[in-house]
Amino acid sequence: MGKDKKTKEKKTIASVIKAIEVIEFIAHSEKEVGVTEISNGLNYGVSATYHLLNTLKECNIVVQNERTKKYSLGLKLWQIGMLAYGQNHISVTLKPYLERLKNLTGETANLTVINNNQIVYIAQAESNRLVKMFTTMGATAPLHCTAGGKALLAFKPEDVRKQILGEIELTRYTENTITDKDEIIKELEEIRNKGYALDNEEREIGVSCIAAPVFDLNDNAIASITISGPTARFTDENKKKWIETVLQIAKEATDHLKTIN
């Protein structure tokens, strides 16, 4: 009986999964996409893809360009996304800390979490400078070459850390990207000792970052607070000050979360 119940609980609806994959495919496309492009990209039949798109269109999740007949995401999805943002306890609660960090450093401050072995940007306080770094909320990035990713990975339990390192691909993005597993393990140990992580143009040339983890009531690293900006401004003097600032803000954010949980 228990086994049958467990099996039932795991049942999913394939068409819903496919519909979500269609949405994600469109979301990651830089421009409108057609039925054939979507079906080829997801290896779905054209007819099935067409029916999925029609259903999503009926629900205002996607919209179709009447001239090109291609699809893009609809405002309904944006509205749902804004509601999800409002219900996200961490992003809403910690947004003031990002604002403070931005004001203290002048650089863009981000809040990231781990999902599907990547970091996801869930909140941001954008720099007021003319030359600055910023990203789209909901965007993802690799763990091994981002300060936020390394800060979170370093403070995961050892078994979880090993599992993730065994699953992710250490892709090289710049000449500074660490692609050797042993080197990554060594750096993660250093990050645990120091309490912060750096991205020295490891994801993109000209961009540097500093990150520190935020912990919950059970001392689990649930998010990372980061600043990012042009490498030219990340001088040794600034980095020394900013590391202390990022650590302090992350600690204050952690203390705040522990008082409200």
Topology:
Layout: H1 2-9, H2 14-27, H3 35-42, H4 46-58, E1 62-64, E2 71-73, H5 75-87, H6 89-105, E3 108-115, E4 118-125, E5 140-141, H7 147-154, H8 158-167, H9 181-194, E6 197-200, E7 207-215, E8 221-230, H10 236-260
Antiparallel strand pairs: 1-2, 3-4, 3-8, 4-5, 6-7, 7-8
Helix pairs in contact: 2-4, 3-4, 6-10, 7-9
Notable characteristics:
single chain; two-stranded antiparallel ribbon; alpha+beta; globular; 10 helices; Arc Repressor Mutant, subunit A; 50% helix; 2 domains; disordered N terminus; Beta-Lactamase
Largest sheet: 6 strands, antiparallel
At the first level of CATH, the class of the largest domain is: Alpha Beta
Low-confidence stretches: 1-8
What fraction of residues sit in β-strands? 15-25%
Please tally the helical runs, counting DSSP H or I stretches of 4 or more residues. 10
Biggest sheet, spatial arrangement of strands:
5-4-3-8-7-6
Q: How far do the termini sit from each other? A: 37 Å
CATH topology description of the largest domain: Beta-Lactamase
What structural class is derived from the secondary structure elements? alpha+beta
Number of discrete domains: 2
Chain-averaged pLDDT: 89
